[in-house]
From TrEMBL:
<dbReference type="GO" id="GO:0000105">
    <property type="term" value="P:L-histidine biosynthetic process"/>
</dbReference>
<dbReference type="GO" id="GO:0003879">
    <property type="term" value="F:ATP phosphoribosyltransferase activity"/>
</dbReference>
<dbReference type="Pfam" id="PF01634">
    <property type="entry name" value="HisG"/>
</dbReference>
<keyword id="KW-0963">Cytoplasm</keyword>
<dbReference type="InterPro" id="IPR024893">
    <property type="entry name" value="ATP_PRibTrfase_HisG_short"/>
</dbReference>
<comment type="function">
    <text>Catalyzes the condensation of ATP and 5-phosphoribose 1-diphosphate to form N'-(5'-phosphoribosyl)-ATP (PR-ATP). Has a crucial role in the pathway because the rate of histidine biosynthesis seems to be controlled primarily by regulation of HisG enzymatic activity.</text>
</comment>
<feature type="domain" description="ATP phosphoribosyltransferase catalytic">
    <location>
        <begin position="54"/>
        <end position="209"/>
    </location>
</feature>
<dbReference type="InterPro" id="IPR018198">
    <property type="entry name" value="ATP_PRibTrfase_CS"/>
</dbReference>
<comment type="subunit">
    <text>Heteromultimer composed of HisG and HisZ subunits.</text>
</comment>
<dbReference type="GO" id="GO:0005524">
    <property type="term" value="F:ATP binding"/>
</dbReference>
<dbReference type="GO" id="GO:0005737">
    <property type="term" value="C:cytoplasm"/>
</dbReference>
<protein>
    <recommendedName>
        <fullName>ATP phosphoribosyltransferase</fullName>
        <ecNumber>2.4.2.17</ecNumber>
    </recommendedName>
</protein>
<comment type="pathway">
    <text>Amino-acid biosynthesis; L-histidine biosynthesis; L-histidine from 5-phospho-alpha-D-ribose 1-diphosphate: step 1/9.</text>
</comment>
<dbReference type="InterPro" id="IPR013820">
    <property type="entry name" value="ATP_PRibTrfase_cat"/>
</dbReference>
<keyword id="KW-0028">Amino-acid biosynthesis</keyword>
<keyword id="KW-0067">ATP-binding</keyword>
<keyword id="KW-0368">Histidine biosynthesis</keyword>
Amino acid sequence: MSKMITLALSKGRIFDETLPMLAKAGITVSEDPETSRKLILPTSSPNLRVIIVRASDVPTYVQYGAADLGVAGYDVLAEHGMDGLYAPIDLGIAKCRMSVAVREGFDYANAVRQGARLRVVTKYVEQAREHFANKGVHVDLIKLYGSMELGPLVGLADAIVDLVSTGNTLKANQLKEVEVISQISSRLVVNQAAYKRRRADLQPLLDAFSKV
Ligand code: PRT
Ligand code: MG
């Protein structure tokens, strides 16, 4: 009998978009994390359970082997780093882009041309640092944990680095996208040690995920 496999997911779009892939492997999750308070969800497979964690915590659970595998956005993985993780499959789900945005009236191109020092709020400090360093733009990065869009509106920052999908959030807050930093989708991440030692147990799931 093979040992339990633990899959780490976050609720919301990642859980919702991962379900159909599990279904392709004949696996259903017995409870809905939106309504259940349980953090450990059994599945129709006695050898597979799902744990529900914050999106940005998925790599941590997998890195330390508390989950054998997980699904996380490239934004989260790039920020966390790949220590102890193996990312064999880009699932092409939860797609969006990471962009720079400013207030509608702000002339970003001109500020950059003038060599101005920009204040930027973001949850993605590492990716923002790399982007502006590559462009040779001087920035003071201020870390926020949410509602980045507010920063430029109340004078905390000149610009934000955040995820954009429809652009509606930016529009609703009189912000405009001025640069796309990267295209983002979610990847399957596997604990490196588990990938080596439990390959046979994990293979059916890896196959199901790679069929997308
Ligand atoms: O919400 P929580 O703080 O727990 O964590 P989270 O926001 O990281 O989790 P979640 O579930 O919202 O996002 C999980 C993953 O989905 C992210 O890591 C991304 O890889 C991916 N994803 C895809 C997105 C979006 N699209 C997205 N639009 N994550 C966030 N957004 C947010 C964005 O930050 C902005 O506030 O939606 C807003 C913009 O959306 P539009 O459609 O108005 O442009
Ligand atoms: Mg969110």
